[in-house]
Amino acid sequence: MALEIAKVEAILRGFAILLLVSTVCLVGLDSQTKFVIFYEKEVTYRDLSALLVLVCVDAGAAAYNLLQLISRWFLSAWISKGNLKGSYRFLSWGCCLLDQLAAYITFAVHSAALEHSILVITGAE
């Protein structure tokens, strides 16, 4: 049962890494070109501060998930050799806390980037 949970966690973390990296690539490599009277203006993610933060946080979240995936793999190999004695409760709670922190920060940044983008498109009164 524990091996199945570890496999599911690895698959979910891999899927999260794939989605976060694809978001970084889509937002980071996209640009819009608009012809304004006599010159052409190209807009990238650097022109909106919320999108710049979105790219940085998504890249950080993907790196965090990759590090968690690698550390869990090494930790499970280390535990199986019997090097760690005692309860794993604090280790599990610490990983859970870090996962929740990463998820909430990523969600907050996505919400802020969406709100900022909508305000740029529609304008504010």
Automatic annotation (TrEMBL):
<keyword id="KW-0812">Transmembrane</keyword>
<dbReference type="GO" id="GO:0005886">
    <property type="term" value="C:plasma membrane"/>
</dbReference>
<dbReference type="Pfam" id="PF04535">
    <property type="entry name" value="CASP_dom"/>
</dbReference>
<feature type="transmembrane region" description="Helical">
    <location>
        <begin position="88"/>
        <end position="109"/>
    </location>
</feature>
<feature type="transmembrane region" description="Helical">
    <location>
        <begin position="12"/>
        <end position="29"/>
    </location>
</feature>
<keyword id="KW-1133">Transmembrane helix</keyword>
<comment type="subunit">
    <text>Homodimer and heterodimers.</text>
</comment>
<feature type="domain" description="Casparian strip membrane protein">
    <location>
        <begin position="5"/>
        <end position="123"/>
    </location>
</feature>
<keyword id="KW-0472">Membrane</keyword>
<feature type="transmembrane region" description="Helical">
    <location>
        <begin position="49"/>
        <end position="67"/>
    </location>
</feature>
<comment type="similarity">
    <text>Belongs to the Casparian strip membrane proteins (CASP) family.</text>
</comment>
<protein>
    <recommendedName>
        <fullName>CASP-like protein</fullName>
    </recommendedName>
</protein>
<keyword id="KW-1003">Cell membrane</keyword>
<dbReference type="InterPro" id="IPR006702">
    <property type="entry name" value="CASP_dom"/>
</dbReference>
